[in-house]
Records
---
Amino acid sequence: MRMYFNQLGQIIREQDYECLRDLTQWIIMPSCTDIGVCKVLPNFRMSEYIIQGFKGNGPQMIKNIILATNPSRLSFRGKQMVFCRYNYFKKIKRNHLDKLQL
């Protein structure tokens, strides 16, 4: 996973995507299916070690990165939102009954 974050950060810095590097707020939240993360909610935030290469250093550094827990409560323009990375649809579908054919 660390390798993928390194590659993404390298692409953003080398291609000089200034809006992604300087203006975008990055919120990184773990999922229950990520490597090294417990399969039980709530999940702790990811380690700084994993995103170290993504963040970079020097003048090309990606600035606005938040490591969030799963689930997370975020405030945006005075509204409170809760985000959770979990496939609830799969769990609902498992308990679904098909139409009965009469």
---
Amino acid sequence: MTKNIHHMFHDCEKLTSIDLSNFSFGKIKDMDYLFNGCKNLEKIIWPNDGNYILVESISYMFNKCKKLTSIDLSNFSFNNTLQFNYLFSNCSNLAK
């Protein structure tokens, strides 16, 4: 059974950092808007297992994360990801 976690932290304006290192993304299919509107989010710690194989959609995932300066997605596998729309939209401090 696949799961959706879209909008999980949507508009969590007081969220500044989050440690997801113990979270399993193995059955997640939809991560749209996951951190959308988290304007004070500065740091995200992702699991190192790289188990994101079912993820198909990550649109608007970091939209409006204005304090996010960098993000490490090196463990992500985007082989099945079809939707990337506005992934980093309005991330004004994200390094290029």
